[in-house]
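Researcher: Good morning. I'm working through a list of sequences from a screen, and I'd like to move beyond sequence-only analysis. For each chain I'm collecting a predicted structure so we can compare shapes side by side. This is the next one on the list. No need for commentary yet; just the structure.
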Amino acid sequence: MTDRKGTNRRQFNQVVAATVTLSALSPFGIARAQGASAAEADIGTGTGFTATVRWGEVEKIEHERDKGLSVTVYMGQRKGSASSSDFSDKALQETVGAACNIARYTSDDHCAGLADAALMAKEIPDLDLYHPWDITPERAIEIAIECENIARACDPRIHNSDGTMVSTYAGLHAYGNTHGFAGGWPWSSHTIDCTLLAEQAGGMQRDGWYSKCRDSRDLEDIRHIGAEAARRTVQRLGAKKLSTRKVPVIFEAPVASGLFTAFITAISGGSLYRRASFLLDKLGEQIFAKQIRIHEQPHRKKALGSAPFDNDGVATRPRDIVRDGILQGYVLSSYSARKLSMQTTGNAGGVHNLIIAPGEKSLADLIKDMHTGLLITDLIGFGVNQVTGDYSRGASGFWIENGEVQSPVEEITVAGNLKDIYQRIVAVGNDVDPRGNILTGSILIDSMTVAGE
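Model: Good morning. Structure tokens for this chain:
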């Protein structure tokens, strides 16, 4: 850690401490004076900008400066919430007053209230999430133009751009409640994204590539981003339709995460207590193929999904959600846990770095193993029925024969039921995509319906 970075961290942590004290704790006295039995507050502040170029010209520069305070009060088991972007004493009084007025007129909810005090995070580990990027808009524009020029030079069929952007943002998250808990952390996020258009014989295709991380020094080199964006765009040219068939399917890593987003929604408390999930009452049962392990690692350094505590102030912890294909636990906040007569899993606000344990094979190996089938590289729409598990989404990608890519395909639909799809996972690739909160490699499924002509 450099001295400059250490100084920045200390300064930002001081801001966190001050902001928690002034903006998260002061509402509590006001709330108590108005009859609240408990209260909690969270704040978010941050600044950043995005510079976008298109075909060598500056398209826009957007600056962001965000500040928000949310207060929730409880009068017994009646709840009220209000928010403000103004941190002045007068605005704070009005915000807490509004939350209290709402609480007075809501119905009792026996599950409402703060998370148990014993579950509050005792320590706030440094997860190395704060790496501000000392970059000017002018330099960001230069990087974006250079990245786009690299992509343009890769192939003459690239005839236009849908925008290349460089984005940087640094902020803080803080939370406190009347248990006496107060904590927060600074964070940053930076992105370089290049999206291109290619044309051949009257046909046009769009694709791209991006890199995203906490520390700008970990961003992929723009030569790789530009070249990969060009490769992915050009390889889609000449795409054809397929006839309807049932074949093995590979979901490439960048799109495979959607399969697990649906899974997490299905085992989340809100879906379960509303009985609106295709995985109701499946705890301890075989959900996935036996070789599948899905675990949560909330304390990974620099990871995009890391958090020392959840939105209730409950300490996060590593755990297996699926082991040997068997569902080990749900995804619960304190409220949904009470609705289900269970205990919170530290997931108010969602999961933190969900990892689908990778196998040893690369995407190229999975393609060879599949021999004949469909490689999906893009999905369209949100065709998942969370109650039944029925899955149907528009897709494009590549037809595979003899373990090799034969031709790009488009305007097809892949369909099945997630309960069956999860059981049919043959392998998880080692090409893990690190650019999000769900970390998975490519997924090989032994059979799905592909609907086309």
